[in-house]
Write a structure and sequence with these properties.
By secondary structure, this protein is α+β, with helices and mostly antiparallel strands. It has 6 helices and 5 strands; from the N terminus they run H-H-H-E-E-E-H-E-E-H-H. It is globular and about 35 Å long.
Length: 168
């Protein structure tokens, strides 16, 4: 029998699981970026690691503005959101060396949005062979790296200045 080792899940299992209010708004207001896995803050939007990732390095770009859809955003916010999507791709290329990406927004619950009242864009790095039998047969995803380690790698690249940060 194979064992799936996911020690990071214990924190979730033992927690209250669901904070009151919008997770994007709550995390953005706190001054605990490392604890909340906020990788980068812009003027109108920020980059955060998904704590329930589809794949290692799964990022989300979220505006500070609490709106349900892209067309509700002000022009400056929308422009920065897209700059941060591009920045996220460059950052992931240097930090975790994926072969490709899935990038997209699920707008509305019927479109698959887990958080449908605060628009955000997913950036999911992909590698050849990262989809195997586990999701199909066992309805289980295998994420091979702890979130703390991924966060550390991303922050190291930013702090090294090897990726040009997006201009406002």
């Amino acid at each position: 029998m194979e064992r799936l080792w996911t020690p990071w899940r214990m924190g979730y299992i033992l927690s209250d699981k669901k904070a009151e209010g919008c997770v994007f708004c709550l995390k953005a207001k706190e001054a605990k970026d490392a604890e909340n896995y906020i990788v980068y803050r812009g003027q109108w939007a920020f980059i955060i690691l998904n704590i329930f990732p589809y794949n290692n390095g799964h990022l989300m770009v979220s505006p500070y503005q609490h709106v349900p859809s892209l067309e509700c955003l002000e022009a400056d916010t929308l422009a920065e959101l897209m700059r941060l999507v591009s920045f996220s791709i460059m950052l992931l290329r240097q930090a975790v060396h994926p072969s490709g990406f899935n990038v997209g927004a699920n707008i509305g619950k019927m479109a698959g949005a887990g958080i449908d009242d605060h628009v955000h864009i997913h950036i999911v790095p992909r590698w050849e062979g990262d989809t195997n039998f586990m999701p199909i047969l066992a309805e289980t995803r295998v994420v091979p790296e702890l979130l703390d380690e991924t966060y550390r790698k991303l922050r190291e690249v930013i702090e090294a200045g090897t990726v040009v940060t997006p201009a406002p």
